[in-house]
Amino acid sequence: MQAGNSAQKSQGRLLHSKYPRTRCQRCHAQKVKCSGGRPCSRCHMAGCGHECSYVVRDRKVRIDESYLEQLIRDSEELRQYQLRSKSHVLPTLDQQTSPTEGSDTKTRNPLLEDRPWFHAHDGLALPIYVSEAACTGFATRLCQCLDGNKTAVPHIPRTRYVEESTLALMAHSGIQWPSLARARLLVNTALGHANPPFHLALRKSTLDHLQQIYEHGLFNDPIFLCKYFALFALGEVYSFHNDGEKGTVPGMAYYARAISLIPVLPERPTIIYIEALLILALYSQSLNRQHSAYLMVGNALRFALLVGLNHNISVTQCPDPIAREHRVRLWWTIYIFDRSWSLKLGLPVQINDEAIHVDLPTNLDSTTYHDEFVDSSYKIAFVRLARISSTIMCTIYSRSNFSETFLQREQKILLALQQWTQSLPDHLHLQTTRHNPRCTILIHLQFNYCVILAIRPVLLTLLDHLSPIPTPDEPTIPATLTALKDACIHSARHTLTMCTIEWTNGASSTYGYAFAQYIFTAALILLISSLLPGGTAEDLASVETAIEMLSSLVANGSLVADDLFHHLVRVQHCLRSGRFASRVAKQRGLSLSVASPAHFPFPAILSSDGQADYLPSTGPFDAAGAAAESAYTVLDQPLMQDFLTQEVGELRLFDAGEMAGMGTDLWPGLPLWAAW
After folding, report:
1. Which residue range forms the structural domain that includes residue 34?
2. Can the keyword Methyltransferase be found in this entry's annotation (predicted)?
3. What angle do CA 505, 511, 514 make, to 5 degrees?
């Protein structure tokens, strides 16, 4: 009781001292003496204590101007110190155990929200997981940014793939072995197109064994039947440009028969079985069955671990150098598939580098070497890019807590890509005086793809903080962000240039998955580029060319292109009708349309009045003079060199103070990572 009375008296003294010379507004109005406190005694007795309030008086004090300026400087120094401290602070235990609430958003990819992204779809019991690393997921995020309303633009799930019921029917269609001449042609086509990046089988040995099968009538061995039918399917998909029947892909009957032979997993897998799985996984991409391909290469990986392909085997246990090199190259094909497809789907890699102890491929000094293998330098280049791909997935598109900032992780990846370019043999560089082989083009397309996926979150963040209405004095983007932006846009432009040249030369595969993926990924970046400072009219013209190529692939039966085409059409629609419509309208002479319905049977974009909206095309893409420009020269530009040569400790996150002029009300007190 005494303690309570003491506390009440102390509180009364504090309240009384807080209002010693002023009356509450009620006492002041009645012109009576006020006891002070809240409520005062008169208000308390009148039963209106909640109305007891005081006028806050702000005294005016004269100070020197120099003192005021010193306070401003001290405040700015304190703000900069707090920003630096937050950039380098390690996550606490609470942050590690509660990433949703405690993670430091200043170190995270701006594409990633606190919670994983799931999309409910009619007819499916489980919601679809959508990864921001996937290009289709990025396309949806871009549409949401352009539209300004996240909930109004849902994700478009991947539904254009060959279903299991179709494959089950084809598996019992009675497909037979082709003639020996056709079988040899299909096997040569399959291995010729897959190599050199993907070593699937020994070339000469595979053809020799095929000859023996036909000579001795050994058509019923299930393992060899599975391998060769998978090769027949792959050979057909690379041989045809138009199957003529909508919803089917060349080689489907062979594929369905081959896949029906592997329902029971072997306890003791063989090299032939692993080869068959890899061939089937590669063909699955042509059916747009991306998850099936991911699962098959996962099975191949685990079978490879069972037989020890991730280790070097001694000469005493495997004296044949061709067999040893075959083991090595088969393993690294599995590795490339795992890394590349994991990044494409936004899923984790299925084995860590620490568990791999096998040497890289080599060129053997053997008379039979060139009958079985191609130059190992192609394979090594793809392996190193695949390793960088896993780093991009683990550090850029991860919700883990990092002690390094996002830009510091960007710097490490770009340094790795720069080292890759420096280690590339001369004969794998793009040439200006002669035609570049398809495999060389593919290497540089994959390099550009890695650059784009590593940097594109930065571009989307810049776009999200761009003023919807163009102003006479556009703000200047800081040098670091300009270097990253330019590298990403340059890689996208170069990708579309190379794809256009491959298209005009007839070197592109209608049913391949990679070509359409490269076109789509680059087109998304150039759509963003058209709105950012430094964008050109040619960027939108290049997007028009990309749409023409994708729509032609769809017309010829490409399921992969069909899926991506609809995403790209929606992005263009959001660009024209979204919050940046005034910026788009300012670009005179540009057309942001889909192809004319007279040429391609695809759905039109509906305008606000519900009518089909078609705009004329801007014409063909002119790639003259840009055919062999090296994509990686952008890493040698002065701004990029400044970024790559900075000390890691000097790199900070996007600073609101650095970009205060970007023309948005989101900046005050809001981190750049905030989701729109």
Report:
1. 18-48
2. no
3. 75
